[in-house]
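Record 1 of the preview.
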Amino acid sequence: MSPIEILAVEETVESSPPSNSPLPVRRATPRRFYTLSVKDHARLLWPFLLMGILGGVGRFKYPYWWPANDLIYFLADAFIVAMVLGVAFDLFSARLLVERASDGLAQRLIGRGLPAELQASIRNVVCTDLVRDHYVKSYTFSASENGSVQVNVEVRYEVRNYSEATRDYAPEIAADIFFQPSFQLLEYGIAGRKIYTFSDDSLACKVQTTDELNLKRVPSSALPPVSLLPVRTGEKVPCQVTWKYSLTVPEHHCDVTEFDEATIGATLQLETLPEDLEFFSGGDVCLHHEAGSRSWYFDKAFIPGQFVRACWFPRWPSIRCSRVRGLPSS
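->
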């Protein structure tokens, strides 16, 4: 018996071109539906099946010489037709009707009165299935040379499935060709289950270049997916993802981390920094950073398209001299 799906209502919990944000890919937005079980189908169909059984008994077991046989046969035929129509509706029509009804309700309940384009954006957020958490991006700088500096970046995060059904997931990444990106390592999977690891040549063969956008990327379509069970089923182990790559960027640079998936919280972490460079991140009221700390934590939820920035630039000559003499820097 093919499943139908019904709507599950639940409560929801000046920019520069991004240098390492994934290439926007138009994806089909999954609806917030869940598949009916065999037990649910049985509850929907049992009245129709009962009518079909009664109709079959009346049609084939009621003797023709008994009184009112024409009326009994007429009712029996009607019961059989009702059973056929009920089963056909459950298998083929209910899903379409529910989807149309849910779309109509969504237009009235989600962003009521707003333009259709805004309603579509809000609906995409409401229909989010996969959410990233514990997002940490670490920077390791080499010594600057000829006005450029090499930055080794490590990105770690976890992915959980908040939908009602199992979802397939594979990570992706992209960076501007101008910064000579080199993807060195990708590791993702669920602890205790299948873990995929790609490095050097095995990862290089999956890199694609998009000349019209000046991007070098590793698309999710080039990677084997992992199946994420819904959190609602009791699944507690997330999919853990680790990327490592390097960039060659100017001494004066602003790195934009754009979130292509819903993300809860983000941390920018500084591992090593040459003495002649200054590093900072800011511009967000949700930012938590203590003086002298090497971590910048953004305590907020990010939706696709939002981003955070990290900037670095050479220190002033006077500051360089003070550091050489061992004096405290400003």
